[in-house]
Amino acid sequence: MRLLVIETTAAFLSVALFDGDALIAADHRNIARGHAEQLVPAIAALPGGGKADAIWVGCGPGSFTGTRVGIAAARALAFAWGAELSGYDSLALVAAQAARLSGANDVAVAVTGGHGQWLVAETPIAWRALDPAEAARAITCDLVAGERANELVALRGFGVAISAEADAREALLIPPQGRFAEAVPLYARPPDAQPAP
């Protein structure tokens, strides 16, 4: 069975195609912006146009736009291909990668959130959006992964930072509690824009 994994919740555009447990092909690059323009061409460049029997998509928390772009593309492809669609917690993917790299069971995650906040979580994944100082007080796990890991470790004065990001190539590492049947966005805070009355 072929599986397509789509991850667009952060600065990286990351897609991976698996056949069973075997990674067939992937595209993982830091683009910062432009997920909407580059995602579909990246999938189309995979063998067979990326066509798969199942699709997993990162549902956040993360970039509002990136999250919605990934989910919209995954839903459209699942409909067109008749593929099974499910979602996963993108911070669970970061934690799973860091656990593999370090060999540790307990890994915290610290990544960029909006409005000066960081998205932080400890194993098991239960994320929060906190100001940096609050995050430093709240996260007690020794090992911290993610783009804000070095800063969090420095702020609190202990621990080890490890480089890891939401990488579709590592999706098979996500624990069952990090995956869910529906592909719905996970937002750390309500959207800034409100519908007009």
What would your notes on this structure say?
The radius of gyration is 16 Å and the shape is globular. The mean pLDDT is 92. It has five helices and eleven strands; from the N terminus they run βββαβαβαβββαβαββ. The protein has 197 residues and is α/β, with parallel strands linked by helices. Helix content is 28%, strand content 27%. Strands 3-2-1-4-5-11 form a six-stranded mixed β-sheet. It has a five-stranded mixed β-sheet with strand order 8-7-6-9-10, sandwiched between helices. It starts with a strand and ends in a 17-residue tail after the last strand. α1 packs parallel to α2 (64-81) and α4 (132-138) crosses α5 (149-156).
Q: In terms of topology, how is this protein built?
A:
Layout: E1 2-7, E2 12-19, E3 22-30, H1 35-44, E4 54-58, H2 64-81, E5 84-88, H3 90-102, E6 108-112, E7 118-121, E8 128-130, H4 132-138, E9 143-145, H5 149-156, E10 160-162, E11 179-180
Parallel strand pairs: 1-4, 4-5, 6-9, 9-10
Antiparallel strand pairs: 1-2, 2-3, 5-11, 6-7, 7-8
Helix pairs in contact: 1-2, 4-5
The whole-number mean of residue pLDDT values reads 92
Overall spatial form: globular
Name the helix and strand elements from N-terminus to C-terminus, one letter apiece.
Answer: EEEHEHEHEEEHEHEE
Percentage of residues in DSSP E strands = 25-35%
Total number of helices: 5
The computed structural class is alpha/beta
Computed CA radius of gyration, to the nearest angstrom: 16 Å
Number of strands: 11
The main sheet orders its strands as 3-2-1-4-5-11
- Provide the helix percentage: 25-40%
Most strands sheet? 6 strands, mixed
How far apart the termini lie comes to 47 Å
The low-confidence parts are none
